[in-house]
Every structure is written in structure tokens, then in C-alpha cells.
Amino acid sequence: MARTKEFDPDAVLQSALELFWRRGYEATSVADLVEHLGIGRASIYATFGNKHELYLKALDRYAEGRDAVLLAELSQPGDALPAVRAVVRRFAAEAVSDDVRLKGCLVTNTAVELAPHESASARRVESSWDHFETLLHSALVRAQAQGELAEGRDPQALARMVLVLLQGVRVVGKASGDTARVRDAVEQALSLLE
User: Fold this and answer.
1) Which listed residue, 89, 154, 183, 189, has the most CB atoms within 10 A of its CB?
2) 194 DSSP 8-state letter
3) Computed from CA positions of residues 173, 177, 179, 181, in that sequence, does the dihedral angle turn out positive or negative?
4) Number of neighbours of residue 148 by Cβ within 10 angstroms
């Protein structure tokens, strides 16, 4: 007879996500996970697989949550350009906020730490970036159709510029938290969205 789990896998996954987000993949050992999650090593392996599989599941959860927020922000009715600007400014504010800065963005952290040498992580990072770029592109196409963005502007190239800018903002924010550097870069980039 199979035993009933004595823990909530969903809550444990969320807790693992937070630990990985705060410490990174390499700096988080299985012993750290056992201690932080409050469940045994065997339960972790039986429920989530090895540390790497748990990390990928946590990264998937993070991306799904972030993507839902971005979709809501960038697809609301009305003017599209103010929504794009608000997302960019929110990312910048988070990048230098003491509450978020030291953790950074889990997708960006994964891009820097794991993606260069680990294909499953790289695929997830690319997928997340592709989704974000698509949302930005759709918003910018809508902005152009509504007359908010000049006809000669390339919404695809602008979406890519914003995506790359925001990934850089996350890295700079995590490394230094220089508010002026981040704010000035963001405002210069936003001036291109006219």
C-alpha cells in the first residue's frame, strides 16, 4: 500500500524555488534543500527527482507566474505604449529595490549561471525570453496600429531591444544596485519608444 505524502508538494516546490532564487543553483546543496524544505532526501527524490530536476521545476513555476503577470500587464485594453513603459519601469525599480535586488530574476540568474553549459536550463531561458519578446512585440504592434508608435519603427527590433535591456538591468541591479545607472539607461531606452 502506498503511503500518503506528509507534505504539500506544491508548497515544497514554492519553498525550493525561493531557496534557489535567493542562493542560486550551485550554492544550494541537497543538504540545504533538506533543511530548508523540512522533508527527507528520499522524499525530495521520490517527488521531484534529483536537485537539477527540482531546480528545473522551480524555474518552470517561476516563469509561469512571471509570464502570467506580464501577459496581464501588456495585453490590457487601451493604450499599449504606457503599459510597455510601466513594465520597463517596474523591472528597473525591482532591479534596484533592496527587497528584490539581491535575488534578481530567476530566469536571468539561470541564464548567467547555468545556460552557458546546461541545455535544459538554456532551453527554458530561451523559451521565457521568446515569450516575453512575443508579448512586447504584440504590445508594440498594437501601439503602432493605434498611432502611439511612429509608423517607421520596427516593433520586433524594439521588443528585442527592451528584452535585452531588461536582462542587463537585472544583472546590473543585482551586482551594484546603482539606481542612477539603471534609471538613466531605462529612460534613454524608453525615449526610443515614440
Assistant:
1) 189
2) -
3) negative
4) 17
Classified as helix, coil or strand, 135 is helix
Confidence (pTM): 0.90
- Give the dihedral of Cα atoms 24, 30, 68, 191; nearest 10 deg: 0
The identity of residue 48, as a single letter, is: F
Residue type, 142: R
pLDDT tens digit at each of 194 positions of the chain: 555 568 899 999 999 999 999 999 999 999 999 999 999 999 999 999 999 999 999 999 999 999 999 999 999 999 999 999 999 999 999 998 887 767 889 999 999 999 999 999 999 999 999 999 999 999 999 999 999 999 999 999 999 999 999 999 999 988 887 899 999 999 999 999 87
